[in-house]
């Protein structure tokens, strides 16, 4: 990569990979990852998150899944953000069942959903026209005292049966839950 000057470090590679992914230059990003590893610089979870998200944005589902599997093989521990990126990407591809399974596996692996991960999966189910699963997840989320964000709430209001949903939130709010 460089012939003179300081050698690139993990931060440099992460910055370059982020730029390549954001500009849709995914083949170059994967080549750079390989070059980085050949230089004995091992990727971290931040770098994997950048690559996985970039692959999903470009619609490269299988590559994103391979990278997710590879991080375990590389001995890297995913984060709640990694799982949330995967769940969002799977939902974007219409793979609701797989996203839901990963959401539950995330918990089994000791990563407990946060407000962001709940909002991502709820929005995904609403976009995929599965309001019953979304409502069950909302009940679970509110039961854990997490808040529904404004974009999720707006999607709920757009549903035909929003009166029942609003009523549920008002009831939850009167019991001290945050909305």
TrEMBL record:
TM stretches of this protein: none
Q: Where are the PPR repeats?
A: 9-43, 44-78, 79-113, 114-148
What span is annotated as the signal peptide, if there is one? Answer: none
Recorded hits in Pfam families, A to Z, give: PPR_1, PPR_2
Q: Which Gene3D superfamilies match?
A: Tetratricopeptide repeat domain
Print the keywords alphabetically. Answer: Repeat
**Superkingdom of this entry's organism?**
Eukaryota
Q: Which family does it belong to?
A: Belongs to the PPR family. P subfamily.
NCBIfam families annotated for this entry? PPR (TIGR00756)
Name the UniProt record assigns to this protein: Pentacotripeptide-repeat region of PRORP domain-containing protein
The source organism is Salix viminalis
């Amino acid at each position: 990569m460089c012939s003179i000057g300081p050698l690139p470090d993990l931060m440099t590679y992460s910055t370059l990979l982020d730029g390549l992914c954001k500009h849709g230059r995914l083949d170059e990003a994967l080549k750079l990852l390989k070059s980085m590893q050949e230089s004995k610089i091992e990727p971290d979870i931040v770098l994997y998150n950048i690559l996985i998200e970039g692959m999903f944005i470009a619609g490269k589902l299988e590559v994103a899944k391979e990278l997710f599997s590879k991080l375990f093989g590389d001995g890297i521990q995913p984060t709640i953000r990694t799982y949330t990126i995967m769940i969002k990407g799977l939902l974007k591809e219409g793979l609701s069942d797989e996203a839901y399974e990963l959401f539950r596996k995330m918990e089994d692996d000791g990563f407990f959903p946060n407000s962001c991960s709940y909002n991502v999966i709820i929005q995904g189910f609403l976009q995929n026209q599965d309001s019953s699963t979304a409502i069950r997840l909302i009940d679970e989320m509110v039961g854990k005292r997490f808040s529904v964000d404004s974009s999720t709430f707006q999607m709920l209001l757009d549903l035909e049966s929003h009166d029942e949903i609003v009523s549920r939130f008002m009831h939850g709010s009167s019991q001290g839950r945050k909305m």
